[in-house]
Amino acid sequence: MQQSYTLDTLFSDLDVTINQKGHRRTFEELFSINFVKYDASRIASLQLAIHQLSEKDISSIIDNNPTVKKISWPAFENFLLNYLICVRDLDPWSVIRSIDLMITVFECQSILFNPKTAFHDQISKQAIPYFEESMALMIPLSKFIDIESMHLHNRNYDYPRLTHISTILLKALNNIRSTPDLNDRMNVDKINLLFHISTSLCNVYYKIGSPILCSNVFSNVNILNLNRRYVSLSSLVTFRFIMGKYYAHQSNFMVSFHHLRACFESITVDNCPMTNILIILKYIVPVGLIVGKVADINRIRARLLKNGAQNDETRKLDALLNIYQPLVSNYKVGNCYGVYKTIFDNEAYWKHIGLWIPMLQRLRIPIFRNLAHQLWKMNGGNLTFGMLKTGLRVSMQGMETLGTAYQVKEDNYLEVDDLFVDNVLASIVFNGFLKMKMNADRTLYFSKNDIFPDMHTVLSGRFSLNPREAWLDN
């Protein structure tokens, strides 16, 4: 028969753990709020032992315990108190009745990353995997409870618990940021936890409808000017992906592409799960088109599907590339209808990843530039106004069959007039994508050199990167 687990047993285990004596339980095993993960019977026994104790009784026992006195850390004592209250009042049959108790314990954990002494810091480092485990539990659990509450009460976009979780994560982030000499090899585990919290917090901000707050997270991390060698590759890629996604949604496409490209160039099928590769590809290909960088879909397909294996993830990747293949092909040759038809056919997808409006608004000039370039090459290095006029008519033929949002011209696409061609040329030249002049009779005169500058190079000279993010590339 298993021995009962009491407060005395818990404090004895705690003493062994914090003093790192012989065989010992981890912080996760001792204090996990995932109460069924390690030893549910131990938790049940502890609950039975303390169920009649008041909060004052528990607090008094904690205050008088020799191990706790030795630790001498009010934040840790508060954590112990709230953990034991959670165990005492836990309803094993109802998550909804227990979730707020668990959130309180999680909040107390975040304070443990503000140690006052070297001994406290040792405990803080032991608590890192514990906080990771709690974070992995509390974020999805809080989201689930909030969604269920919305269904019950007929509400939309109301995430009170998940919003509270975001404040806890921010508190933990700021506590870790204040670590003396954080940018040191001895604090690698804290640095990687900092990044895990940062990306989790940004994901929560997106879920609760406050993505703009991600900017504060990036600023809080960038100001530390950390040594990127202390950050694991997976943490770095995840962080930069969130930055790339955020900047894309803020229409800062050059900075977005810079981070997304850094992510994609850092990963392989051997060091990154296909699911994560898929997420990066969803953004880097369309953002690349907006900034004049065309992905080689065939090369990507060969690189990522080289072993020919077929599973659910590779099929999803193949399906994604099948969307992007016609998009890229039509973009390269300046086929306006082909590009917008692909967007139109997958409208729900573009809305889901938050790029529908940018795809409608930001591709027109690059498409027309590519059309002019294609016609110029086909005509042996020359282009006339009439050729471009005819090319535009062919390029846009069929646009009237798409929705109103997709229209780039108000009237009949078969009747492309001179004024429309004038505006197209003016836009391409103004953006620096074509070097030419046009006289009154619409004769085109091209520059002797670099007639069609590389679009990405042009945009790179126009839009600078954030110097505070330079540490990510050093």
From TrEMBL:
GO molecular function, one term: double-stranded DNA binding
GO cellular component: transcription export complex 2
InterPro entries reported in the protein's UniProt record: Csn12-like (IPR045114)
Gene Ontology biological process terms from the UniProt entry: poly(A)+ mRNA export from nucleus; post-transcriptional tethering of RNA polymerase II gene DNA at nuclear periphery; transcription elongation by RNA polymerase II
The organism's place on the tree of life at top rank: Eukaryota
Name by which UniProt lists this protein: PCI domain-containing protein
